[in-house]
Amino acid sequence: MNMEISRRQFMKSAGGGVAGTTLGALGFGGIEAALASSIRPFKLTGVTETRNTCTYCAVGCGIIIYSKGSLAKGERADIFHVEGDADHPTNRGTLCPKGAALLDMVHAETRLKHPMLRKPGSDKFEQISWDVALDRIARLMKDDRDKNFVARNRDGVTVNRWLSTGFLAASATTNETAWTTYKVVRSTGMLVFDNQARV
Ligand code: SF4
């Protein structure tokens, strides 16, 4: 039987459990078993906990994702609960309504799970692999930079800038990732560079 049980009901049942044990000793074991079967096991027992970052906004709250099923055994991870990470320095376990509803986003039919490409002239997107997607992005960036890179301005001053491509970085990253991203992007000469934190 799948019963919702409140904290108050649990305390009552725990007290009842003591009484039930006594009842069992007196030969009323059936009552004790019925009471025990009415208490739902703690739902987070024996599941996989995965730490992650909320996908929604620039605050970057820490979350814990709970799943059943072992990936190591080739099983599919079935995510059934998401909550704030009490050990995370940003949010200390709290989540705003959007973060608290992350489970709905995880299971949304419309959630994008793969890179998608709409080829020139096509009216639909098709799924591509990450290798194809990253190779294509690198190719297009290189070609565009080769074509539009400005080494010197009209006065002959060295500027080394690339204005025809922009980069939007993720906000929910570590300081180290953000530092590396900044160095890579700026080293190309790209000036149009912003962060999801300002979106
Ligand atoms: S839980 Fe709310 S405040 Fe925190 S990162 Fe997600 S959307 Fe932003």
The gist of it:
With 199 residues, this protein is α+β, with helices and mostly antiparallel strands. It has six helices and eight strands.
Shape: elongated
By DSSP (H or I, 4+ residues per run), the number of helices equals 6
Main sheet specs: 3 strands, antiparallel
Using only C-alpha atoms, the radius of gyration works out to 27 Å
* Succession of helices and strands: HHEEEHHEEHEEHE
Unique ligands: iron/sulfur cluster
In order across it, which strands form the biggest sheet?
1-2-3
Q: What is the straight-line distance between the termini?
A: 47 Å
User: Would you count the extended β strands for me?
Assistant: 8
Segments where pLDDT lies below 50 for 5+ residues?
none
Oligomer status: single chain
Task: Produce the secondary structure layout.
Blueprint: H1 7-25, H2 29-37, E1 48-53, E2 62-68, E3 78-84, H3 97-100, H4 102-106, E4 116-117, E5 126-127, H5 130-148, E6 150-152, E7 158-169, H6 175-187, E8 190-195
Parallel strand pairs: 7-8
Antiparallel strand pairs: 1-2, 2-3, 4-5, 6-7
Walk me through this protein's architecture.
This protein is α+β, with helices and mostly antiparallel strands and 199 residues long. The chain has 2 domains: 38-106, Phosphorylase Kinase, domain 1; 116-198, no CATH class. It is 35% helix and 23% strand. It has 6 helices and 8 strands. The strands form 3 sheets. It has a 3-stranded antiparallel sheet. The chain has a 3-stranded mixed sheet with strand order 6-7-8. α1 packs antiparallel against α2 (29-37). The longest helix is centred in the N-terminal third of the chain and has 19 residues, at 7-25. The protein is elongated, with a radius of gyration of 27 Å. It binds iron/sulfur cluster. Iron/sulfur cluster binds at residues 54, 56-57, 59-61, 91, 95-96, 98-99.
